[in-house]
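In this section we walk through a basic example: taking a raw amino acid sequence and producing a predicted 3D structure, encoded as discrete structure tokens. The instruction is simple. Fold the sequence below.
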Amino acid sequence: MENAAAPFTLRETAGAARAALWAALFAAGAYASVPLGPVPVTLQTFFILLCGFTEGPRAWKAAALYVGAGLAGLPVFAGGVSGPAVLLGPTAGFALSFPLSACVAGLAARGRRSLPKYALFGALSTILTNSAGALGLHVNLSLPWARAFLAVAPFLPGGAVKIAAAALCAAPVGRRLGAGRGEAAAAAAGPGEPPDPPEAGPAAGGPDAG
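The resulting token sequence is shown next.
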């Protein structure tokens, strides 16, 4: 029993370490920002997409860790803001959408990867993030729906660029991180290439997609 449990523990430890690494990258992306109205342009959404494309649907765990850390008081959000007060600000919808957006982007990592899959699920993730952002602006700033969606519209062209950049970076990042046997092997193979077969043995099962 101990031998069977050890690989599981190692996988869980590695997964937690990767989640912490991605959360740190989300925080770094928040500080790379350009003011644009009440909501700045940041690199957070690029890292959300890249995390999803690399880790698969389980990317939501890293995003949830990041959001939880910010709400708990760590200055990881854009502008160094933190704490529960963020929920009353203009960026609330964006921040709260990150776990689900990362999971949606991660669907591109299921099965055979391809550029069309990256484009599709990256676009869905981006639409989800910006729709949630518009909802936050509508609720917290009392903007009419039309003005709220107009406020997030400038983010869409940049979102397309981020999707393309994340798709190009997914393979090398997957190789560097070794993000699990199944999903990272597919990431390292790149779009349109079959992943390497898993290693033989009792610990050769696929990663936890939770």
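Looking at the output, two observations stand out. The helical segments are 2-31, 44-55, 59-72, 92-106, 115-140, 145-152, 155-177, 181-189. Residues 180-185, 193-210 have pLDDT under 50 and may be disordered. In the next section we compare this with other chains.
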